[in-house]
Amino acid sequence: MSRVRVTEAHVASLADTLSPREHAIVATLDRLRIASATQLSRLHFIDAGTPRTAARRTRRTLHRLVSRRVILRLDRRIGGPGAGSADYVYALDVAGQRLASACGPAGGARIRRPWTPGVSFLRHGLAVSELYVRLWEAEIAGGLDLLDFDAEPLCWRTFTGIGGARLALKPDAFLRLGIGDYEAFYFIEVDRATQSRPAITRKLTRYRRYHQTGREQKRFGVFPKVLLLVPSERRKAALVDLAAAQPAASWELFQVARYDDAVAVLTGALA
Fold first, then answer.
1. Is the dihedral of CA 237, 243, 249, 255 positive or negative?
2. Could you tell me which residues come within 8 angstroms of residue 212 by beta carbon, excluding any fewer than 6 positions away?
3. Number of CB atoms found within 10 A of residue 152's CB
4. Where are the alpha helices (DSSP H) in the chain?
5. 12-71: pLDDT as tens digits
6. What does the DSSP 8-state code read for residue 3?
């Protein structure tokens, strides 16, 4: 198959000819950077009938978008042992980046030729995407209102540190949820037990320093809770200890929970 050349005319044609569902897939990958075919199917093909029909329509749609250089199927399969498109990971290709906000597989603010990041990066990114999918499904079920979900790099914050140094806070996501009559704000850290204790301590300290600037409080009235999502009870205990080692005045900033309990914690069903 010959490679489509991404010209201004091609991008303009895409803007006019993509279906609303296809535009929504572009918007999702612009928001999340990467997502698996299964995740995209759960988000955009819930009206497709049976799971088998949804999988077939997902494959067909994704193949069409790949052929037009809107999205890219990455070189690695991530996830379960099954075969087929459900195991593939997708990101915005050059045309898709031009339709959206120029955000490729690893973020950034300019158009880039696509490439496949490493396995660790992909697994972490897919975990963030999975959290978004689960929250969206909870919203459909009536458990919450997903008002904002900004993944990297949209959720990053910059601030001035001690001595005027320019610092960056890089959470994995920022959430704004409507739960009943209240709004809840969170910075999310998806921990896969790959970072050292000193690295986690430095991250917690940076959140504490950013809290001291008052910037989030001025914007939202509160500082978002920092929710660290971990893979196991053992890792949870380790990160609780690290959070408790911060100054007592900052303990209330942090909360640690198992990743699989995230939606229940965020909706208040699990303390």
1. negative
2. none
3. 19
4. 8-17, 20-32, 37-44, 51-67, 94-99, 119-141, 197-213, 215-220, 233-244, 262-266
5. 778 888 999 999 999 999 999 999 999 999 999 988 778 889 889 999 999 999 999 999
6. P
